[in-house]
Amino acid sequence: MNQFQETVFSKEEGQDELSYFRNKLFVSILIILLPIGVFSYISTAITVIILEKWFVFYLDTAAIAVICFLFFNNKLSINTKKTLFSINLFILAFALTASIGLKSSSGLLLFMVCVLVTLYSGKKAGMFTVLISSICYALILVFHYFKIFEFPIFKDELFNVLLIVFINNILFILGTVFSVSFLIDHLHNALLKEHQLQEELLEKHKNVVLAKERAEESDQLKSAFLTNMSHEIRTPMYGILGSAELLKEYHKQDEEYQEYVKVIEGSGNELLDVITDILNISKIETGLMTVKNTLFNVNDIIE
Fold this sequence. Notes:
Blueprint: H1 2-9, H2 17-51, H3 54-72, H4 78-100, H5 106-121, H6 123-145, H7 159-247, H8 255-286, H9 298-302
Helix pairs in contact: 2-3, 2-5, 3-4, 4-5, 5-6, 5-7, 6-7, 7-8
């Protein structure tokens, strides 16, 4: 069973989501129907053998054999299995109708076939099944009315009664097929919208990640620029402070001259401290310097 599921569950390239889920639904129906069909076949076979309804026995045996063949055969394509499965149940439904009559569950079986075909093959396949059902019902009516072929089970049935029953069956099946198709179309549209929203969200996520990477790269470039500029500015500042130190040796008695030199030296040192702080911030942002958190007294700092 696992090998069977893996064979048909693999999504083909270019296959849309709706077709993929329809294939999964068909496989699920086949898996569920096999044990149910075997159990139903055993109970039905015992009954028809006792009643000597050999045509029904052969018919049910052929139907369950086809279902088992489709279940265990992994060489057939999924579309071929769908076609054979639909034809098998369709023939079974009309054969039971012709042999057992309107009192059997053949009408319900035909209704189930049309609905299942619509679910796992689409609206066109469902409508085609309804059309074939209408033709088969019409042939039964024509054969019965013109006595072309006698169906023993319909021998005592009035033509008008058969006509009304068959028309009601077709109309009921047709309405159900349209309803199921309408529901599937809306679910498919909702699935497409959800998929579109997911793609849009994924695209926005990619854009956000890209913008984040660009911002981080820009921040790193800024930090690297500040680091380089700090070094470039500090180099001539050392030259200015060194020159100011040399100027202090001249005109020592001139207080105004010495005051100007002190202004140059003090301003240079303050500017050097600012450059050092900028360099340290750049190192922290680039990860070249680690920050150590410690407790301190705010009042001491203010004083």
